[in-house]
Amino acid sequence: MDNVVVITGLAQGMGREVAKLLAKQGWSIAGFDTDEDGIQSLEKELEEIGSEHLLQSMDITDRPGILAFRDKVIQRFGKVNTVLSNVGIGFFSPFEEVDLEKALKCLEINVIGAAAIFQAFIPSMRENGYGKLIAMSSLVGQVPFPFESIYSASKFAIEGMVMSLRYEVEPFGIHVALIEPAQVSTSFAEKIHKLPPEGSPYRERAARFIKRDDELIKTAPTPVQAAEKIAKVVKAFKPRIFNQVDGMSTFFLFLNRFLPMKIRDAILLKHMDIEV
Question: What tens digit of pLDDT does each residue of 3-46 get?
Fold first, then answer.
């Protein structure tokens, strides 16, 4: 039980694949998700692998529950090497038509959820003199996409939080990292892609965006392929701060750093087929 990782949102997709991959390499796995069926099936897989694990069904907004979970993990394993904040929800809507109550829920889950799980485990990491805090961000955490203003805001917030947090915890041997995927071939985008209503001035462009996004997802990395790269970040003694898992994010982050905004924007709009 030398290596222990806590993963939020691990019932499906990348989180699940990272958990299985690390379990096969001898890591102990702790984590939670709201998907109770997914948690139960993952437990069976981890048992077959022979991995030590502690999983439960829980919502990331249950902050007393997170602290109780933290206590159980520390009691069971004695320490935690790495926390991977993977839980998150998407949000797709023209900004003018955003339901702000739903937007608040997105920010609560994506930003405060990551803050809560990190905050819970920092004290034990600080006392041990070592740990890693890894947050699932996105390409849109640096390059905002149209119709994803709220989701982009949540990922910009994640990046700002982690970059600020870094200055505070590194003196205690705690390292931070961000994972910035553009697209992975999961049902994540499909669940949020909803056309604006008939009569919306944004409907036609949003339809083109969705169609293009669906095309790009077909050739995006699978959750297994993404998990292989994420697992390398988890296993690194001192991971890089910015980490990509696919070519699209690498490409656009390069453009973002080196091209004038006007040129970058023109490339993005053409790439997503939403030029006016």
Answer: 999 999 999 999 999 999 999 999 999 999 999 999 999 999 99
Give the DSSP letter of residue 95. G
Q: What is the DSSP string of 116-145?
A: HHHHHHHHHHHHHT-EEEEEE--GGGTS--
What is the predicted pLDDT for the residue at 251? 83
Cβ burial, residue 50 (10 Å; 0-12/13-18/19+): exposed
**Among 54, 59, 57, CA closest to 29:** 54
Contact (CB, 8 A) for 245 and 179: yes
Mean pLDDT, rounded, of the chain: 93
Query: Is a pLDDT exceeding 70 seen at residue 256?
Result: yes
Q: What is the CA radius of gyration of the chain?
A: 19
Work out the number of other CB atoms within 10 angstroms of the CB of residue 47.
11
Q: Are 13 and 184 in contact (CB under 8 A)?
A: yes
**Start-end of H helices in 129-222:** 149-169, 188-192, 203-218
Q: With the CA atoms of 248, 249, 255 and 260 taken in that order, what torsion angle do they form, in degrees rounded to the nearest 10?
A: 120
Answer for the pair 28, 52: CB distance below 8 angstroms, yes or no. Answer: yes
The yes-or-no verdict on residue 203 having pLDDT over 90 is yes
Find out whether 17 and 223 touch, Cβ atoms under 8 Å. yes
What are the chain's domains? 4-194+221-249 (3.40.50.720)
Q: 108 with 155: CB under 8 angstroms? A: no
Residue 185, pLDDT score: 65
Q: Phi, psi (5° rounding) for residue 70?
A: -55, -45
CA distances from 5 to 21, 92, 190, 274 (A): 12, 31, 29, 41
